[in-house]
Design a protein that fits this description.
nine-stranded mixed sheet; alpha/beta; about 35% helix; about 15% strand; Spore Coat Polysaccharide Biosynthesis Protein SpsA, Chain A; homodimer
């Protein structure tokens, strides 16, 4: 896992949903301190942020969002505020970790450097065309197994790295309510490419991507009605991930899941019950997943920008008649392509 | 991982490629002794088998194969002899482990019960329609993550369980020669369903399956020219696995990979070099994988038997013109459906 990571190629983007980020920054200090950090404050959060000194931090607030973008149909409140950070970053890569997550420990007791692991995931090839049963073939001590075609062993570029979570796993509110005392303790020491054509639920809790390439599809599109501030309220990252996966599949890029883990703080089961009463997310995915699984983007869409424009049109045509939230998602997708062109597309 | 496994529902099938199975059986005694064991002796192996007492073993030899089947176009020599055991078994499930494998230890130092883990894999549902980022959602302490559609949480029946290998990994002869000192030490504590449409290289080293359902597709079809007695010489299991995967995908069944591990004894690097000189396997997979990835079986093929007959026809039409080994594979596939009907299809 040795790899040169330049400070100048990575921004760390943190969505501040709580004012006091002191213990968060202190815990991440060994891994974050040499990088530029973009903190985007939830536009609905009133209290002043507390961020310890010793970091290269730039904080963006509601007035920055309003000032830069003016009137926009995209709602940047709650967890969605981080996407504003993706827009104003000028780095090749972005890493984003929720503000209720701390560094995890591996089974040997070593603290996990999530930054380096994400960068290893992004900078080593992905293998979407055939599953390797020993997982990441480029990892030290591993290789391609017997039967793996030699013509596929160079792999393709990896654009998205989705890390995982120990302790409080990323469940929906129903599962949180039912299994309120269950904690994830299983550290699975593997990174794998999600195969071509296979869809998976991307969590925005602990994620990294190639901003230069994937930026036009890293938007907050799907917002369910009466969405709150908890992860379990949201599907914006799941939707985002499905869009990113179909586009990576269409353009021949790879997407990985597995390491690194972060340690998530405790869920509040009572509050999950509150969310559940009106949670639209229970049924939405039953429409969303078949839509993405049967989707085929045209061969003439050869950039991420081409693909997302085509995808927004298909969402409007096929999904929007079922539920107004999909119509709003299509609006947000089209709006994002414009915002990205004006504000996001400049690179360092 | 607690689960009731009936002695009467499982056969363990061992291909004897070496005469002295004493240490193999002794090592597996805690896990094998209560089950019926079918040992099939490589028809080209001359020396008498040594098997310790205390096991319910039935040994099949060349004369049993010839006596039951008469003239057949299927070549049961080498690793392929185990498939005769699949044919004569009358149990619902079969587990097969290579005779150079011993029980592995997990990271906590506990000896792995590969039999029970395979049966857990087969008896708990598989989830081929969406990837669960926390891997097996039915495992103790795990669940479906946020975004996983509730309509898919019942899963489907798992028909094939492919275990892995510590120490001497299952590489092709080229990789064995290049990395002669590399040993796999990474115990990845996970079981996962291979997603719908994703192909993967099934290794026959450590495998279990539902014989009643999948039997008609568990055949030795592909035999490369000048194939020897080493695993690295063979692609019969890889071909078999690709056939099984497309058929499971077509019929809505699941296939899993991951746990259990077994410990494989050392490779003999010098011999890998000998195999390599004439190893046809280097290029064969570059034709085989695209064939399987683009394959679509018809909706009217609703049983494994229907599917394998259709598949054999497509192999003959599309692949056989490229290489005579595919024509022989199609012969073997058609022959196997007949053998299975006459000899394999009876259940206990």
């Amino acid at each position: 896992m040795s790899l040169e990571v330049q400070d100048s190629e990575v921004d760390i983007v943190i969505a501040a949903l709580q004012p006091n980020l002191t213990s968060f920054f202190q815990a991440w200090q060994p891994f974050f301190s040499r990088f530029d950090i973009i903190v985007v404050k939830d536009p609905e959060l009133a209290a002043d942020l507390q961020i310890p000194s010793g970091f290269n931090v730039k904080v963006y607030t509601k007035s920055d969002i309003d000032g830069l973008l003016g009137a926009t149909s995209i709602n940047f409140s709650g967890h969605s505020c981080r996407y504003f950070g993706y827009l104003v970053s000028r780095k090749k890569y972005v890493i984003s970790i929720d503000d209720n997550c701390l560094p995890a420990k591996d089974p040997a007791g070593m603290t996990v450097d999530a930054v380096t692991q994400h960068m290893v995931n992004l900078k080593t090839p992905a293998t979407p065309f055939f599953f390797n049963t020993l997982y990441d073939p480029y990892r030290k001590g591993a290789d391609f197994v017997r039967g793996y075609p030699f013509s596929l062993r160079e792999g393709v570029e990896c654009m998205l790295s989705c890390g995982l979570w120990l302790h409080n796993a990323d469940y929906d509110p129903m599962t949180h309510v039912v299994k309120r005392n269950q904690r994830n303790t299983n550290y699975v020491d593997a990174v794998m490419t999600v195969p071509l054509g296979a869809m998976f639920p991307v969590s925005g809790i602990n994620v990294a991507f190639n901003r230069e390439v994937l930026g036009p599809v890293m938007f907050p599109g799907l917002r369910i009605r009466k969405e709150g501030k908890h992860r379990w309220d949201t599907l914006e990252d799941i939707w985002n991930g499905l869009c990113a996966k179909v586009i990576c599949d269409s353009l021949g890029y790879g997407v990985k899941t597995g390491l690194p883990y972060v340690m998530r703080s405790d869920a509040e089961a009572g509050k999950a019950l509150e969310s559940l009463k009106e949670w639209e997310g229970v049924k939405v995915m039953d429409d969303v997943l078949p839509f993405f699984e049967s989707l085929k983007l045209s061969r003439t869409a050869v950039t991420v920008d081409d693909c997302i424009k085509e995808l927004a049109g298909i969402v409007r045509q096929k999904l929007a008649p079922k539920n107004a939230i999909f119509s709003k998602a299509a609006d947000a997708m089209e709006e994002w392509t414009k915002l990205w062109k004006s504000h996001g597309a400049q690179n360092a």
